[in-house]
Specification:
The protein is α+β, with helices and mostly antiparallel strands. 27% of the residues lie in helices and 27% in strands. Strands 1-2-11-4-9 form a 5-stranded mixed sheet. Strands 3-10-5-8 form a 4-stranded antiparallel sheet, with no helix packed on it. Strands 12, 13, 14 and 15 form a 4-stranded antiparallel sheet that branches. The N and C termini lie far apart (43 Å). Residues 55-184 form the Cyclic nucleotide-binding domain.
């Protein structure tokens, strides 16, 4: 299993990163024991952190396995900074062991406090199973917080490119698949076509995380349907006849 420290080189500046289909990209794979893989799957699937369900809930079993393979473990000493405000996002993190203090600039009358005012305050404590670092990767924005280890800790890391290819691209595909039948869900009728497209994608990720697929078989025929928040069903794939043996 790959272990690194936070002394590794960070990226320089922030740029609008385009994911180009023509670029050949191979998902990374870092060695892990079967127990570590199972632990990571369980954290992603059953964590109390809703961000994990939002981001990974739409992945297929194969897609989730690629994410598990692509993550590596990083060790941090007590009081070591893993994310610094203003830096470019390099990784997405899930706390494996230990805990982290998250500091952000306080708001003054609706505006962000200036750095020289010492306006950075603790806003959250991330413990085992909680995730952080996704915002900078989702929006190609600088880090909006500083995060420091409260104790000797370990995190699972997913590199920027892997996060965008394995998580964001998969969500975009699900977004396209679900857009049509989600239009039939009464609670979503007030949205126009523009609202169903980025930059509303993060909102849609939350909505589509409630979509579930089910298969029904009868008389040698199998149909796969999707259900949304009101329990209504729509075909998600053509009806297929079972293969004769």
């Amino acid at each position: 299993m790959r272990m690194t420290s936070t002394k590794s080189r960070r990226r320089g500046g922030v740029s609008a990163e385009a994911m180009r289909d023509e670029e050949e990209w191979v998902p990374p794979s870092y060695p892990k024991s079967p127990e570590e893989k199972q632990q990571l799957r369980q954290v992603i699937e059953s964590s109390h952190d809703s961000k994990l369900r939002m981001m990974f809930g739409n992945l297929s079993p194969k897609g989730l396995e690629k994410v598990v393979e692509a993550m590596f473990c990083k060790l941090l000493a007590k009081r070591e900074t893993i994310i610094k405000y203003g830096d470019e996002g390099d990784n997405f993190y899930i706390v494996r062991k230990g805990s982290f203090d998250i500091f952000a600039f306080r708001k003054i009358r609706g505006a962000q406090a200036e750095e020289e005012d010492g306006g950075m305050v603790k806003v959250f404590e991330a413990r085992q199973g909680f995730a952080f670092g996704e915002a900078a990767l989702l929006y190609n924005a600088p880090r909006s917080a500083t995060i420091i280890a409260r104790e000797d800790s370990e995190v699972w890391c997913l590199e920027r490119r892997a996060f965008r290819e394995l998580v964001i691209r998969a969500s975009e595909q699900k977004f396209k698949e679900y857009t049509e039948f989600l239009k039939h869900c009464d609670v979503l009728q007030e949205l126009d076509v523009e609202s169903r497209s980025p930059p509303s994608q993060r909102w849609w990720m939350r909505k589509t995380s409630r979509v579930r697929r089910s298969s029904f078989s009868k008389g040698g025929m199998t149909a796969t349907c999707s259900s949304c928040c009101q329990g209504r069903l729509w075909p998600a794939s053509p009806v297929r006849r079972a293969k004769s043996r």
